[in-house]
Amino acid sequence: MIDVNALVGPYPFRHVPHPDPEVLVRVLDREGLEGAWVGHLPSAFYRDPTPGNADLLAMLRPFRDRLRPAPTIRPDWPGWDSSVAAAADAGAPAIRAYPPQWGLGPHDGSMRELALAAGERGMALLLTVRFEDLRQRHAMDAAGDLSAAAVRALARAGDAVRLVVTAASRDMIEEVHWGLTDAEQQRVFWDISWVWGPPEHHLAKLFRTIGPERFVFGTQWPLRLVQTPRATLDLLPDDVRPARLSPASAICAAGDGGTGTVSG
Length: 264
Description:
By secondary structure, the chain is α/β, with parallel strands linked by helices. The chain has a single domain, classed as Metal-dependent hydrolases (TIM Barrel, Alpha-Beta Barrel), CATH 3.20.20.140. About 30% of the residues lie in helices and about 15% in strands. It has helices spanning about 20-30, 50-60, 80-90, 100, 110-120, 150-155, 170-175, 180-185, 200-210, 225-235, and strands at about 1-10, 35-40, 65-70, 95, 125-130, 165, 190, 215, 245, 260-264. The strands form three sheets. The protein has a five-stranded parallel sheet with strand order 4-5-6-7-8, with helices on one face. A three-stranded parallel sheet has the order 1-2-3. The chain has a two-stranded antiparallel ribbon with strand order 9-10. Helix 6 packs parallel to helix 7. It is globular and about 50 Å long.
């Protein structure tokens, strides 16, 4: 399995121990994960994320056989289209964007252009609902959660769009999924980093109603424990085990009939 939601670099609102790529590789080895799509955590809070992308590529260069970059691109910033091209040239499977942190509303036209540009180059657009629970956020962290309306608007932007939405809970996943057409639903994948397991078994309920093929493995390391989504899968009820998630490689192939699965 590939972790589609890993990060490196410091977090501005609290100390995060060892947010380094060499540590991430050891964590992947320990958990039996093949690799990770990796973003640059501080870039989410940069006014211009471009320098952070250069830092990300430099940090991952010694580990490119395991760690693939997911650069951050701000679509209302000059030259963003060149950054999309550079990300594709660097072999990025996805790009990251943070509309709440940048003050971009649910129906922002530049976000739709970014989603289409990424999809046309075979990359997914990776969105983050939250970094931390509202109860533990720093007073200076004024951005709210990504809204369901923002995800729905991007899913409707065009056939080329592929979204990976991370750190969403069951209520948001259901609000988005059941508000989309069948074709639009196929453009959205969800990581399981914030979906509860026992005793509520939210993931099991989502598997039964939405289907496991709409979900991918993601951890949000180093802000969350890698063991959490693994345990959520291991503790699924018998009627939905073994869980089969979509592999990372199927995300951008989904519109062309990609149906590969791997055991969770």
